[in-house]
Amino acid sequence: MSIGEALARARRDAGLNVAEISIRTGIGQSVIDDIERDDYSSCGGEPGARGTIVAIARALHVDSGPLVDAYDAEQRQGEWIAAANASDPVSAAKASEGHGPDTELAPVADDEEPGPVAADDDTEPITPGQSSEPATAGEPPDPVPISEPPPPVTVGRPAAIIPAEVSRRVRLAFADRHHSMWLMLGAALLAVALLGSILLILGGSGRAARHPSAAGRNRTIGHGATHQAGTRPSPGRSAKSPGPTGSPSPSGIRPARALVPASIAAFGPGGTGQGDSPQLANQALAGKAAAPWHSAWYTTAHFGNLQSGTGLLLNMGRTVTITSARIAMGNATGADLALRIGNSPTLASLAPAAHASGVGGVIRLTTAPTRGRYVLVWFTRLPPDQAGTFQVAVHGITLNGYP
Fold first, then answer.
1. How far apart are CA 332 and CA 360, in angstroms?
2. Which of 139, 210, 272, 362 is 20 to 30 A off residue 194, Cα-Cα?
3. Nearest Cα to 228, choosing from 287, 183, 188?
């Protein structure tokens, strides 16, 4: 089995398609298709091919060592064949006719055709038509053996690349994840049913129940943010709002409504030019969990000490008043984020309006009415991913307030 076939088989066993592997690794789908066809021309040379093989293997939870060894062996074999063809075209031509590495060519008589004679350490080579008696003076000298090429290297090593137990572990990991999701969903539904019953009892006895519909959908986390049922924040962490940072909205009872941003862009410490995965920014508003915007992956939750944070900048097109935000992330918990609002698209000009710690899934951040043209969803800590690294994914952002 070749390297590309091994990776394609591992991907199918994991129940993933090429697009999902591309999202996890940040590698283009066309490059992954080429790798699975054992075509490395789009990888930018041997170092790029090795890095691409390692990244795909890690996303599939497959040991990349045997794959890289097989790739190196394949390159060495290609180099040996090229060197043999360049330095000894006669030997290369003979080798292509079927002579193995242990076959010698006997000397050719004037009226005879050359033929292969097996080499043996204890037996003198014999040419057709020639006597087996020891050579005497005047006879042709002993044939000179052609240099034997090194034994061919076997490429693939299927048993080491995709052992049965690895495929079984991948399937079991997915089964365990789905089982856990069903258990969490069942527990959430039970909690909602119990809370609804309590609210009905309190309402029937004449005691006030504040916002029962909202209480059935959301669970309050600290001050200024809520977390929807079905997700689980880390223990001891909370989301808080530091208070208003701009002018409050006009007085009077007026319900907030959804505000549609004019544009969205990936944002880094130095602005939109340093954001992670800028080509995927629009997917943070699409509401498709299977195709989210995601940050680059890092070796630690604090970006491998390479930068202070990463996020998404929403341009509202004009100055508006923000009262809350709903952010839909992946299910992994452990993210720290802040909602920053201001009138200039720089990190220093965007003041914090609310923040949450150790969260995942769908959360709701609330703040005192704050005016601004730009809203930044800014992550300062990343949750873990399935590959053992750290990155965050966002597939939905909804802002509420007044135009």
1. 5
2. 362
3. 188
